[in-house]
Design goal:
Blueprint (H helix, E strand, L loop, with lengths): L3 H4 L21 H21 L1 H14 L4 H24 L1 H7 L19 H5 L25 E6 L2 E6 L50 H15 L26 H12 L2 H15 L4 H15 L11 H19 L5 H15 L5 H11 L6 H12 L7 H16 L7 H21 L3 H16 L8 H13 L13 H6 L23 H15 L21 H4 L11 H16 L9 H7 L44 H4 L20 H14 L6 H11 L5 H10 L4 H12 L3 H12 L9 H15 L3 H9 L18 H21 L2 H18 L11 H14 L4 H10 L8 H10 L7 H14 L2 H13 L7 H13 L7 H11 L4 H5 L11 H14 L7 H13 L1
């Protein structure tokens, strides 16, 4: 607000050399003042008379929304000119004011000392602009003392500074920042326009009359100031704020404003990249990689300046999706090859589904798929149909999957068998996962039982597919134990015995405790859930409960469309992928990860949902008093991990991460059933490569009883050196003495120490002593692999000569290179481990543990995460090392910057981010983590995450009223998941009305979901019981 002295200032006419005005004080200043007062009163009366007229004009102006840009430019020029004149007068009248002004003393509230501060400054990155008085930064936002090299610019709520580089701004010449010369480079010609004089108190005397009153001018100026901050235009490839083109009237801005604009451009790499990519596609429109990179860049623009605490608004996402669709349509018209066209089409159809209506999208899909059976296009179409509640039907999607399976297998005669069968296995996995999620669990499990029997237990005399299916039908209908069932011997044994086999014993159904709730829908939900849990495996004809539910018994005609034969010639090549697919279906991590199809399945949100495990009530919290003891708190070892399987993960015990989930984690299928299936594959089918994983499964189920299954494996595979090593590591978790005996016996057996296996045993032995704290003995164990005199050492540690150490180093190095040349990756990995271990044991200071800085550990882990962004072990260790209480959560920042980005984003990483917020964050950050995960393309259709989100919202008092909305969103994105629909009858039963529950049930039946208990019959039964 202006002071009284400033209000009484009188503007003077600018002084020119050719014009010297007379001294106004010597003329008639009282007369001028009187004229000004009378004119001001007249304007006041006119204002009061025409106030209603001005209101109508303002309303019409706002309604039309049109204002001439020239008027705005002229007003802005007027403001700047008036401001400069006033500033010049204040500088001239400064000494006089200093004499007359009195220093305010004792004015209450003039100065305030803030003793608390504003904690929201750190959260929002700046001051609350509404609490800061309006001010004008002079000198074009240049920083005082920098001579123009540093300039300030606005980035959202924050004021940032930038360094003006050589060739920019005023001081930019040949010497860059050191130059004292003004810039002399040529600039585009500017239109010179006469500045309209500023409004002054003596307008009439200066030769013009104001057409509007001062009050109206002030209101217009305020409107223009608000209109300068244009609302963001999300349809711009430049980012969230679309820059408008500079007009001729705007080109006459001050040089200070242009300096500010240059600084903003240089500090915005996203905008620079947008310009570069746009130039690339304009210069080379056939460059599809540039088009796709430009489309991907829109995601970075959408997330610019945001973090994990921010949820992208729906209109923002929709607007950016429209931009991407427009770009992809332009790219499609410039494709030159079939492969490029498919790449663009897949991207276009995925993004178009977010913008187009369901009917329009379905029509476009029918046009795209005409005459093109490309797998990637087909998979994108399948994802659309599976996640679109409008068009979803269980029978239609199931038929589509079965048709694709047949179409793929029909190409066996013309294309390479291995590639065709790998695609067929993926389609089969997706098919059975879909059937299982829809509630037909028995059918899905029976399909896997039949395929495994046909593949691994096929009689050698049967080669023809038709004869094989006829023989297998007889085996299936006999209801003898099948793979996974206790006492199963397999199809081969059944044929060799001449079809003589005893059927499995009838199973008695476990009693179901009736619900005590008076709510009929809640009682029905309890009964339906209990029946569904009891129907995880296919039943036999004589089992209890099969009379009321015909789907419990799976006959051969039900599974026949699923079956196909894998030729014996390629079985060894595709069997790892088939076993991995079976483990993924059962909810376990894959054993081999030897195929890109397995990697695709692990990252497929419709398949990997069964691997998601979250603890909604974690017990680990960071307290202020415990920040110094962060190293004593262990990471979470019981959560599912994403990594390559190794012995330390299979047999880590309670002190390390578990690759195979324990029985307490409630896997999708019974762990005992999966264990039996693996046991029969290893022992009955002779799949030796699966032995270590099977032993790890036995260790997970019963750690103390590992000796019995290990002895059986070693008896069947006595020459398997890696199996001996695995057994030693498993025993180390139970009894160190037994582990030493196993390793010593293995090193003394020449048949087991061939090639690089002796280095494997000695490295394992050395690790055991190192973990026990015997560094000297660990060095002896490792060097004993090249010096036989050290193999008999038990307790006394001899001195190892330098010659022995050099020999060990040279042996490990030469053998490592030989393994690399021969293509033996396992041997090269073992020898590289020996080299690293020897370097550590012989390095100075390795004799005892030494302190380390936590920041150093985080730096190393951060580098590992950059190389392996999906490895959840590195993420968990980084989270563990980041245990102190700080405003900035480094784990969250690392996830946002390196992990949850396109190309690396996956379901497991999103689950880790949510679990991190559940453990370290609060309810709001956890909710944002859920929202960000379910808004991403990689997790939008993951049923497990939606179920956890519904339960989380319902458990939080502040979010309970939103749980129902989350449920309907989940229903829209996961129409093929019965578990999602059943949340209405379990978690949300108290908040759902009877009509809503009835609507959910009708949706289940109309979409083709499996229902065990008919609701109408259940209601009639309840009414009959009440009437008694």
């Amino acid at each position: 607000m202006a002071s009284p002295d400033e209000q009484e200032e009188k503007l003077v006419v600018p002084k020119f050399s050719s014009f010297k005005p007379k001294n106004p004080e010597k003329e008639n200043p009282p007369k001028a003042n009187e004229e000004h007062e009378s004119r001001h009163k007249k304007h006041t009366r006119d204002d009061e008379k025409s106030r209603s007229h001005r209101h109508r004009e303002d309303r019409d102006s706002r309604h039309s929304g049109r204002e001439s840009r020239q008027h705005r430019d002229r007003d802005r020029s007027r403001d700047r000119h008036r401001h400069r004149i006033q500033s010049r007068e204040r500088r001239q009248d400064g000494p006089e004011k200093k004499k007359s002004a009195s220093k305010p003393e004792g004015v209450p509230g003039l100065f305030v000392i803030d003793t608390k501060g504003d904690p929201l400054i750190i959260r929002y990155g700046g001051l609350d602009r509404s609490q800061v008085p309006a001010y004008h930064r002079r000198e074009g936002r240049k920083i005082l003392g920098s001579e123009g090299r540093l300039v300030l610019h606005r980035d959202g709520p924050r004021d940032l500074f930038s360094i003006r580089m050589p060739g920019e701004g005023f001081h930019s010449g040949r010497d860059g920042l050191r130059s004292k010369r003004p810039k002399t480079e040529s600039r585009p010609a500017k239109r010179i326009m006469r500045r309209v004089g500023a409004y002054s108190e003596s307008e009439e005397a200066e030769g013009f009359l104001a057409l509007t009153s001062s009050r109206k001018r002030k209101r217009d100026q305020r409107n223009e100031e608000s209109s300068d901050d244009e609302r963001p235009s999300y349809r711009s490839i430049e980012g969230k704020a679309k820059p408008r083109q500079q007009s001729d009237s705007e080109s006459d801005k001050d040089s200070d404003m242009s300096i500010d604009a240059v600084a903003v451009d240089q500090s915005n790499p996203l905008k620079q990249k947008s310009i570069q990519l746009s130039r690339r596609v304009k210069e080379a429109p056939e460059d599809i990689d540039a088009w796709l990179e430009l489309v991907d860049h829109q995601d970075a623009l959408l997330k610019a300046g945001e973090d994990l605490d921010h949820t992208v608004l729906e209109n923002e996402a929709h607007s950016f999706a429209e931009i991407k669709v427009s770009m992809l349509e332009s790219a499609l018209t410039n494709t030159r090859s079939v492969e490029d066209r498919r790449r663009v089409l897949v991207y276009l159809m995925r993004e178009g589904a977010k913008v187009w209506t369901s009917k329009a999208t379905a029509k476009k899909w029918s046009e795209v798929l005409t005459g093109d059976d490309n797998f990637v296009l087909w998979k994108a179409h399948l994802d659309f149909l599976t996640a679109n509640i409008t068009t979803f039907q269980y029978d239609d999607v199931k038929k589509m999957l079965l048709d694709r399976l047949r179409l793929t297998l029909n190409r066996l005669a013309t294309e390479q068998a291995k590639d065709i069968l790998e695609e067929a296995i993926f389609v089969f996995l997706r098919l059975t996962r879909f059937v299982h999620d829809a509630g037909y669990k028995e059918l899905a499990v029976a399909a896997w039982q039949s395929l495994l029997e046909l593949t691994f237990f096929r009689p050698p005399a049967i080669d023809n597919e038709q004869s094989a299916l006829d023989s297998f039908e007889e085996f299936w209908e006999s209801e003898v134990p099948r793979i996974g069932d206790a006492g199963a011997k397999g199809w081969r044994q059944y044929v060799e015995a001449g079809g003589d086999g005893d059927a499995a014993e009838p199973q008695r159904a476990a009693p179901i405790t009736p619900s005590s709730s008076r709510d009929v829908y809640k009682a029905w939900g309890h009964l339906e859930h209990s029946r569904s849990q009891a129907a995880k495996l296919p039943a036999r004809t004589m089992d209890d409960g099969t009379d009321d539910d015909p789907f419990r018994v799976v006959i051969f005609s039900d599974i026949k469309p699923f079956l196909f034969l894998i030729p014996t010639s390629v079985l060894s090549e595709v069997s790892p992928q088939l076993i991995d697919a079976f483990l993924l279906f059962c909810g376990y991590a894959p054993a081999f990860k030897a195929s890109r199809w397995t990697e695709m399945a692990c990252n497929d949100q419709f398949i990997s949902s069964s691997l998601v495990k979250l603890d909604l009530q974690p017990t680990i919290h960071i307290d202020d008093d415990d920040t110094d003891d962060w190293y004593r708190r262990q990471p979470r070892f019981d959560m599912g991990i994403t990594a390559t399987p190794s012995l330390s993960l299979l047999f880590g015990g309670s002190e390390w991460f578990h690759y195979i989930p324990t029985t307490s984690q409630d896997p999708l299928l019974s762990s005992l059933w999966v264990y039996e299936a693996l046991k029969q594959l290893v022992h009955g089918a002779g799949v030796e490569s699966l032995a270590q994983y099977y032993l790890g499964m036995a260790f997970s189920n019963d750690q103390a009883g590992i000796k019995k299954p290990a002895k059986a494996l070693l008896k069947q595979y006595p020459a398997n050196s890696e199996l001996y090593n695995a057994y030693a590591v498993a025993e180390y978790a139970n009894d160190r003495g037994v582990a030493d005996k196993v390793i010593r016996a293995a090193t003394e057996a020449p048949s087991l120490c061939a090639k690089w296996y002796k280095y494997l045993f000695h490295a394992t032995w050395s690790w055991m002593d190192l973990e026990a704290g015997n560094v000297g003995l660990a060095k002896v164990r490792l060097c004993a692999s090249v010096d036989e005199t050290l193999r008999g050492v038990v307790t006394e540690v001899p001195e190892i000569s330098n010659t022995t150490l050099l020999k060990a180093q040279q042996t490990f190095t030469s053998s490592f290179h030989e393994s690399l040349i021969s293509g033996d990756a396992a041997g090269a990995s073992t020898l590289a481990e020996c080299m690293a271990l020897l370097a550590y044991l012989t390095a100075p200071g390795s004799t005892e543990p030494t302190p380390f800085r936590r920041v150093y550990l985080r730096e190393k882990l951060s580098g590992f995460i950059r190389q392996f962004p999906r490895n959840s072990i590195f993420l968990a260790l980084f989270e563990w090392s980041d245990a102190s209480l700080r405003v900035i959560d480094e784990t969250r920042d690392l996830l946002y910057d390196q992990v949850l980005v396109k190309g690396h984003d996956c379901v497991s990483s999103r689950a880790f981010a949510i679990q991190h917020e559940l453990t370290r964050g609060n309810a709001n950050t956890t909710k944002n983590a859920f929202e960000n995960a379910l808004a991403s393309d990689t997790c939008r259709n993951t049923p497990a995450l939606w179920i956890y989100y519904i339960r989380f919202c319902y458990a939080q008092k502040q979010f309970r009223n939103k749980a129902k909305d989350v449920f309907y969103r989940a229903l829209r994105h996961c129409p093929g998941s019965k578990e999602v629909m059943m949340e209405a009858f379990a978690t949300l039963i108290r908040d759902m009305e009877s009509e809503e529950l009835r609507a959910v049930y009708n949706t289940m039946t109309s979409k083709g979901m499996r229902v065990h208990v008919d609701l109408e019959e259940f209601l009639e039964k309840r009414r009959a019981e009440k009437s008694r």
